[in-house]
Amino acid sequence: MGDNPDKTKPAYKREDSSGSSAAGHLDSTGFSMAKHIDRLFPSASSLDNVDVAAANTGHRLHAVKQEIRRQLRAQSDSHQQQTQSIEATKAAIGELYTRISEMKAKAQTSERMVFDITQDIKALDFAKRNLSQATATMRRLQLLVSGVGQLRQFKEQKKYGEAARLLPAIAGLREGFAEHMGVRAIARLDDEAAGLQRSLGSMAFQEVQRGFDAQGLLVGDAELMHQACLCCAGTEEQTRVKDLYCELQLRAYVAIFQIGDDVSQLENVSRRYAWLRRILRNYAEEHAPAFPDAWRMGEELSRRFAHTTRDHLSETMATRDIDVGHLTAALADTLAFEAQCDKKFGIVQRNGAAVYESSGAPAESFVGSVSCAFEPYMAVFISGEQAKFEALVRRFRSEPGDDDPSLNVLASSTDLLYQFRESLRQCAALSTGQAMADLAQVFGQSLSNYARSVLVHALPRISSTTAAPLDALRRACLVANTADYCASAAAQLEQKIIEKVDGPLREQVTFAASREALLSAINSSIGALVGGVDAMCAPALAALTDAPWHDVQTVGDQSEYVLLIASAIEAATSVARVSLSGPRYFRSYCDKLASRISERYMTAIVQCKRISEIGAEQLLLDAQALKSVLLRVPSIGADDDSQPPPTYARIVAQGVGRIEALLKAILVPTDPADALVGRFLLLFPAAPRDVFRHVLSLKGVKPADHPAYLRVLQAHQRQTQLDKQSE
């Protein structure tokens, strides 16, 4: 190390220059002495400077001790300063608390002063209000005393007009003293005012009473009576005045129209209303100035008249036989009278309520005030209408009359429905209550009776000897059209009645039974139409039955009877196409015709004596021709030759299929029996015994031999059942 001083010196200097780094290691919590020495003396040559490193470490130690002493002195000074700050803060808080306490005491003192001032103000307000009320009460009391004195003076002088103007003011003042009735002076004054008002009312009533004589004629001063009436407005004396006047005016009415006299009967009800019109005219010209307009005395008189008339008519109808014509005429006059009264007195309907048109105030309508007496006796009107319709139906049955070609219906139906409309119009003008609901039932019963007694009765009975079968078919179509027309009219009539009748009665209005009767008449008409075609085909089917099918030797073209059947069906269907009004009825006719002709053809074959196998082949050919004829039925008379409806095609296929199955069974030889039975079971899986007997008979098997074939059939059936069970 001594031989190369130049190499050791730089190493020491490097360590010396990193003193700050060494200090950092000495301050670290993870300080390692070995690592620190290695860092100071990284090589052996650096040990030459150990003295210098020790000196530096000593200087570092001294510096650290100085720093510790400085920090301790600084901390001591800081603690002393913190203690002084805390003491100063405590002193400031104490001073602040003292000041807050003083301010709180001053605030409480101020609050007590404000409260005392407020109480004084409230006391002054109460005093002011009480003084104002006392002043106002004394002023009203003074006015009441003065008013009572004036009212007493007006009473003595019979100044009804001034008294009438003063009475409302006195009434208002008396209401203001209602809670002061415990004061004797006020109670005596109130009693005096009430007594004066009653006395004035009595005097006013007497004034009006003297103003009319016993006949109800005006003999007094109308202006004075008007002022007297104002004095008793709103009191019971007003009711007495109204009762007096109405009684005087109606006294003559009751005497003239006494119950039991001829003049009081229903046929003279218009004279009652004429009498009232004369009385109202006299009232408007002479008596109206005697009563205040607000009393509506003319309306009151009319209302009393209506009530009296209602009672008279009720008693009259209860004790006398009622003529329907007189009843309807009287009710019509009564309804017109009620409508005229509403119009005269300005009563209208708004939002379902009666009001006065001028003011909108609630009113009582005159509608129903008299006419309600007729309601219990409207059954007489309904009975009369029912008897009229029953007579019409009887006449239509006995006298069919001419048909209406323009409507393609029976003329009787239009007459009947016209009578229905007229009856409904008349009933709607008379009543929309129970009477209209009852009339709807009468309409329904009459339609049902018409359907059964007229329409069904009018259906033709067509046979093979009928002279003009096509005309008879047109008649059947006419009946069907008429029933359809009546059913449509019944639905419209039902809806119209439901719209007119009172709400709670609408559920009673139904024409379901009559529609069922009309539908039954339509079905009967279609049945008669099909029966007519059947009758037209009867000769041809009879020719089929009588033909010697057992002697046929060859199969040729279709038989002549098929042409006859086709001709009859085409002629009849052409009539049905043109004459039936509804396409659905034509479809019904086609369906029923296909079923009927198939059945009649089957019956005609079964009625043959015997059919050979060649004859069966000819009949099969004829059946195919007949099927073609039937399939063309829906398009006969149509503009286009369209395919038949699928439903109709199935009906034809099923009907002709049974015929073909029967004929195919006849084609099988009777020997051996198993072959015949096997073929029959294929054609008729249900194995109907009656059809099997027909097959045997048509094949010429004697009845005595039938049991043997039936036993074979039974054996095959058992075997078939066993085979199914084994599967």
Q: Could you describe the 3D structure shown?
A:
The chain is mainly α and 727 residues long. It is 74% helix and 1% strand. Strands 1-2 form a two-stranded antiparallel ribbon. Helix 6 packs parallel to helix 8 (236-256). The longest helix has 108 residues, at 50-157. The chain starts with a helix and ends with a helix. Mean pLDDT is 83; it is low at 1-22.
Large-scale geometry? flat
Residue fraction in strands: under 5%
Tell me, rounded to a whole number, the average pLDDT.
Answer: 83
Structure classification: mainly alpha
Q: End-to-end distance, in Å? A: 125 Å
Main sheet record? 2 strands, antiparallel
Helix content estimate: over 70%
Uncertain runs are 1-22
What is the multimeric organization of the chains shown? single chain
**Spatial strand sequence of the major β-sheet:** 1-2
Number of helices, counting only DSSP H or I runs of 4 residues or more: 23
Overall number of strands: 2
> How do the SSEs run, as a string of H and E?
HHHHHHHHHHHEEHHHHHHHHHHHH
Q: How many whole angstroms does the radius of gyration measure?
A: 61 Å
A few lines on this structure:
This protein has 727 residues and is mostly helical.
List keywords for this structure.
single chain; 727 residues; two-stranded antiparallel ribbon; mainly alpha; disordered N terminus; 2 strands
